[in-house]
Amino acid sequence: MNKKSDILIIGGGIIGVSAAYYLAKEGMAVTLVEKGEICSGSSYGNAGFIPPSHSTPIPGPGVLKQGIKWMLNPESPFYIHPRFDVEFVRWLWRFGNYCNKSAYERAIPLFRDIQRDSLALFQEIMEQEDIVCDFKQAGGITIFKSKNGFAHAQAEVKEMKNFDIELDFLDGDAVRKLEPMIRDDVLGGIHNMEDAHLNPALFVEELAKVAEKYGARIIRQAEVLGFEKAGGRIASVHTTCESFHPKEVILAAGAWSTPLAQQLDLQFPMQAAKGYSLTMKKPAQTPSRSLFLSEARVAVTPIGSSLRFAGTLELAGLDLSINQRRVNAIKDAGRGYLNSVSSEDDPEVWSGLRPVPPDGLPYIGRSLTTKNLVVATGHGMLGVSMGPVTGKVVSEIVRAEKPCFDLDPFAVERFS
């Protein structure tokens, strides 16, 4: 290994693997280290959505207020686990400052454009590299059961047109005509034709193989232990496998990026938001496109021969433990909106941690304080959908090319 010219990527999820792919394809000497297996974190069991129509940030008008109301209900879609931690309290305060309409509307075009660019890159990669991963661009439907949800759906269709996001409002009969397994008590929905979905684990695993074909070195079971700095740069990175002396370091470790950054005296506020998924064998009647069960905040994805239910946002720190009550809430949601979902189904249960900055925008760019560090993390629940374009822009940063989108809103030290 040419240690002087090496680029070291920390993190083997979709962001890190996409960066390895684009860098290796350009002939750069790349090594990726992952503390577990490739795609063993939040890139593995998520909904697999690529949804430009869902381009709203996590903080929004009324979100924190609703989250506080739900604190007494551990089965709620957005659960804040009560705990006293100075960094968490500070993050909540900042998060609250972005739960307003102006911040919400500033973020939507950013997410919309990046997701659209990334969707095009997904299609390009799959075509060029012959990757098969249950990809399907069939659009999606957000469905509502309550009168409030029904009214909100009508308002959202009008609002999103202002952001060049075309949605169609459907009544209950029209929704069931598209997806007959939707229950009769569903009042209506929002239909879009732009969204896509895939098997996220299969895509990342196959892309990692392609990156290796182009010359990337991928080391599994290699946890980062610490760093040595000299002259404002990272001089060495020590792992459980070996030590590296890279020219450039890319930090793409998802929710685990925060403790690693702290070792470099780099502060970017971020909290881990736990999500769950249940993956079961497809029932006899299954949806042909992705669904979002609005009031329950549960995503439904047909993936190959499986059907996946994914949901909840739980702020409980770096904790991957399974809360059975939250698993049951997702099961109940599936049965509450859809026919053919049996209580006897025995699904694979998974939990993962999504990294969430207080403003909902990821951290993408070069650090101002550690000159050879590029950060790419904080994508929240849109990590998969923004993966390829983030990997591409990381490659452009490292190669000193003009980035494919404006990085100012995503500055790494914007809260410092």
Mean pLDDT: 92
Spatial gap, N to C terminus: 36 Å
CATH fold node name of one domain: FAD/NAD(P)-binding domain
Please give the oligomerization state of what you see.
single chain
Structural class: alpha/beta
Order of helices and strands: EHEEHEHHEHEHEEHEEEEEHEEEEHEEEH
What does this structure look like?
By secondary structure, this protein is an alpha/beta fold. The chain has helices spanning 14-25, 63-69, 86-97, 101-129, 147-161, 172-178, 200-213, 257-262, 324-337, 387-398; strands spanning 7-10, 30-33, 49-50, 78-80, 140-144, 168-171, 188-192, 196-197, 217-219, 224-230, 233-239, 243-244, 248-251, 271-281, 290-293, 298-303, 306-315, 348-356, 363-366, 373-377. The protein has a domain at 1-135 and 195-273 and 358-416: FAD/NAD(P)-binding domain (3-Layer(bba) Sandwich). The protein is built from ten helices and 20 strands. The strands form four sheets. Strands 4, 5, 6, 7, 14, 15, 16, 17 and 18 form a nine-stranded mixed β-sheet that branches. Strands 9-2-1-13-20-19 form a six-stranded mixed β-sheet. β10 (224-230) and β11 (233-239) form a beta hairpin. α1 runs parallel beside α7. The mean pLDDT is 92.
